[in-house]
Amino acid sequence: MKFNSRNHLKDFNGLKAVASVNHNSRSSFLAKDSTAALQQSFTQRAQNQNRTSANAFQVQASFKVAVLGAAGGIGQPLALLVKMSPLVSDLHLYDIANVKGVAADLSHCNTPSRVRDFTGNDELASCLKDVDVVVIPAGVPRKPGMTRDDLFNINASIVKTLVEAVADNCPDAFIHIISNPVNSTVPIAAEVLKQKGVYNPKKLFGVTTLDVVRANTFVAQKKNLKLIDVDVPVIGGHAGITILPLLSKTKPSVTFTDEEVQDLTVRIQNAGTEVVEAKAGAGSATLSMAYAAARFVESSLRALDGDSDVYECSFVQSELTDLPFFASRIKLGKQGVEAVISSDLQGLTEYEEKALEALKPELKGSIEKGVAFANKQPVSA
Ligand SMILES: NC(=O)c1ccc[n+]([C@@H]2O[C@H](COP(=O)([O-])OP(=O)(O)OC[C@H]3O[C@@H](n4cnc5c(N)ncnc54)[C@H](O)[C@@H]3O)[C@@H](O)[C@H]2O)c1
Ligand SMILES: O=C(O)C[C@H](O)C(=O)O
């Protein structure tokens, strides 16, 4: 893949920004500068349709996105970023509380999508009807001293209930699971969808984009690289040592000392905890997560819109290893996962090989815990 960036002066509905954007890395959209990239998306699409950026808002917007847990720390900034997408016609915000105000506030932004709020179980079905992409950040976040698995008892049931409703109301939608522990909540979602008879493994995604965003940032800082050029695949899962950045596959090609590999790997694996400790009891990553989730939503919408060069890392059903779910780079298409990219796992360094073997027992345990939970509590009719 060729990386070729240049500076642009953007005029985005009155908002001016000097944005460093990348035109060839279709795989990395919000890996660049989120605001700039969203602006670029409007402007490029306007140009593609022979319009000026001034009337970029007339670009065809046709997809419906629902955010479940939309009034939360992730949900609110994520909703704002999705509201900026030129591809979204309808943005449905669901939460068990406080979502009316969030939707009223957001609805005043003069971007194309219509915003609607939905509260409580009775309104969940209407929220989900005919939705193309469902994003689920509903659930509780960590406090200092907790692991992501400590959230299982609360979040497993939340995800199960929400995915049941997704199965009943928009079984063809792309489903993005953010709620932790992702290593277990994605298998729970898969089992629920199977029990409902609508499981499509190509359309169920654990959102691990934040690991890639962090890896790109930390590597660029450490090696003094231009941030927008850096792309590091992150494989495995989304907790502790199951997060495995493949530094040897960094683009552009860069060499690391053994010490740098060790430091960077550990920092990327512990980045969530770094934020949890800095927030000191007020939750976990929300803003960077919203940014990462918006990137994954935009990539999904571009794939649904027919772009044929969309790549992201995600925790999906996989045959890359002996584990049933595994995060790796995937190619996204109209039908979801078009291909799981196996080449990243070839030619690993000894360090990466060992780390890959070391993560498997923990990841296997988390997957099995999710499957067992879902099968103990059959879905409601
Ligand atoms: N995948 C990742 O990389 C990643 C990154 C950061 C956080 N997370 C996870 O995302 C989740 C949310 O984090 P947050 O900081 O936004 O938490 P938060 O507490 O700020 O927000 C969660 C929201 O979910 C809502 N909610 C709870 N139960 C619900 C239900 N049954 N239906 C609908 N909404 C419901 C709450 O009302 C709240 O508004 C946590 O589990 C956290 O661990 C994942
Ligand atoms: O660390 C957490 O608990 C939240 C999230 O998984 C993260 O990586 O920031």
From TrEMBL:
Enzyme Commission no: 1.1.1.37
Is NAD set as a keyword in this record?
yes
Taken from the record, one Pfam family name reads Ldh_1_C
Q: Which UniProt keywords apply?
A: NAD, Oxidoreductase, Tricarboxylic acid cycle
Where does the Lactate/malate dehydrogenase C-terminal domain start and stop, copy by copy? 208-373
What interactions and quaternary structure are annotated?
Homodimer.
Q: Which NCBIfam families match?
A: MDH_euk_gproteo (TIGR01772)
Instruction: Give the family, as the similarity comment puts it.
Output: Belongs to the LDH/MDH superfamily. MDH type 1 family.
Put simply, this protein is called Malate dehydrogenase
Task: Give the source lineage, highest ranks first.
Answer: Eukaryota, Viridiplantae, Streptophyta, Embryophyta, Tracheophyta
